Amino acid sequence: MTLENIQLGIRGHDVPLNDPSALAAKIKELGFQCVQLAITKSFPNLVKANGQLDDRLVDQLTQYFGDDHLPLSVLGCYTNIIHPDQQTRNQNITRIKNYLDYAGRFGRAVPVATETGSVIPSGYTTKNFTPEAFKQAVAAISDLCAHAERAGAIFAIEPGRNHPVYSVEKVVELLDEVQSPNLGVVLDLPGLLYQGNVDQQAAILDYALDHFGNRIVAFHLKDLVINGPQITFTRLGKGQLDYRAYLKTVAAFRPGAKVTFEGMPLEDEIASQQILASTEE
């Protein structure tokens, strides 16, 4: 495993700077090669009240972010696309469509990504694991993929344990249901692990790469400590993720893959970057 075979990135909003020029410069100074940019989180002072992008804002941001500057791993528009309130759900979906319309301005095939969200406004519920919840997710994702096709963009879904698309097997089911070439996947292997499957992480990754590897647009990275039902994300080397095997497999499968730290404080992301640099083979 070598860092030369991946593009290591960071979430923009993990760096507490809300000026585009300063943020891009700081991320480069820290040695990261790409960024997962959630514009409403990084630049709440620049975004309109409805959270949508416009030409003025995109022109400003593309001076610093994109293929010609600091490449994007993901254009993040993380929101709840199956919110129980229909008006809120429609607003959330409309905002993602707006991002899809602008994604190409940031570079070639920059994906717009979200998780599915939840059938309740917030928090954990077993209702997310029902056929009805999955059906709602399929309907929303189908709508977004149709828009992505018209816009010439990629819409990517990130599976998560507390959402209707909660496993790699569910991703395969989703891809079977939504027959769109414009549907991608953000794979967060640590975010799919729990006490019942943490010892199967290599098999889970292999399954994902074998069954939908060509759809994966970006990877997430952090370590995790599992204590019964309690899961804590942490810097690399402090938990139960075999991060060396994870990155070695990803780098071999997709040389140049964009791999983004997330789920931990900036100081842990910097420490994790140093750990990777010091353990190169």
TrEMBL record:
<dbReference type="InterPro" id="IPR036237">
    <property type="entry name" value="Xyl_isomerase-like_sf"/>
</dbReference>
<protein>
    <recommendedName>
        <fullName>Xylose isomerase-like TIM barrel domain-containing protein</fullName>
    </recommendedName>
</protein>
<dbReference type="InterPro" id="IPR013022">
    <property type="entry name" value="Xyl_isomerase-like_TIM-brl"/>
</dbReference>
<dbReference type="Pfam" id="PF01261">
    <property type="entry name" value="AP_endonuc_2"/>
</dbReference>
<dbReference type="InterPro" id="IPR050312">
    <property type="entry name" value="IolE/XylAMocC-like"/>
</dbReference>
<feature type="domain" description="Xylose isomerase-like TIM barrel">
    <location>
        <begin position="25"/>
        <end position="264"/>
    </location>
</feature>
